[in-house]
Amino acid sequence: MAPRIGVVTFPGSLDDRDAQRAIRIAGGEPVALWHAEHDLQSVDAIVLPGGFSYGDYLRPGAIAAIAPIMTEVIAAANRGMPVLGICNGFQVLVEAHLLPGGLIRNAHQQFIRRDQRLVVENVDTAWTHLFTPNEEIVIPLKNGDGGYVANDETLKRLEGEGLIAFRYAEVNPNGSLNDIAGLSNERGNVVGLMPHPEHAVEPGFGPDSPEAMSSGVDGLRFFESAIAVLTARV
Ligand SMILES: NC(=O)CC[C@H](N)C(=O)O
Fold this sequence. Notes:
The chain is α/β, with parallel strands linked by helices. It contains five helices and eleven strands. The strands form two sheets. A nine-stranded mixed sheet has the order 2-1-3-4-11-10-9-6-7, with helices on both faces. A two-stranded antiparallel sheet has the order 5-8. Helix 1 packs across helix 5 (220-233). It binds glutamine (GLN). Glutamine binds at residues 50-52, 56, 60, 87-88, 142-146. GO terms for molecular function: ATP binding; glutaminase activity; phosphoribosylformylglycinamidine synthase activity.
């Protein structure tokens, strides 16, 4: 049976459908989860999708982090369930303290959309183990609040423990400290990143321009990685 991967929809989520589609293409069974409920519907993994949950009021992800479903998501993450936060989902993970630091307005104060090159540095996670260490990939980036910040002590720990899962290559698009594009927790089950793997899973629909120099489907392996971990467990 295909692993069941839940995708949480909050009011203002945008990319929940694309995340469900990516899961299906990768060989999993997507399960729609609703922010106002406590029911995880026996899923094996969870994706927090991109978008503008609760209109980005207060801070992006701040209100979603205290939505009813997040009580269960946090408990499941702490039990070791694979959880992936994409863009607004990464902001939610940070606001929920499942990952450290914060995400602030892009340094240039503007919303940005570009095909972004990044390096996968930590392949010891549920969502990245099918990449090779330091592999370069290209997936879309689109956000207004993608500047990663953390205090010196946290940055030192993240660097020292190899928890910087993804680093921007060529261009730092938003002023993120240490070019941080995404993180994992110590256990490797919780991963968050600003760029969008779910938008690069089908040839012809991702960043497949000659300039991007990418297959256009670099995002697929995120989902295939989690599915491989879950399938091996059964
Ligand atoms: N694409 C997204 O998920 C946008 C994330 C967030 N609301 C921002 O603009 O920073």
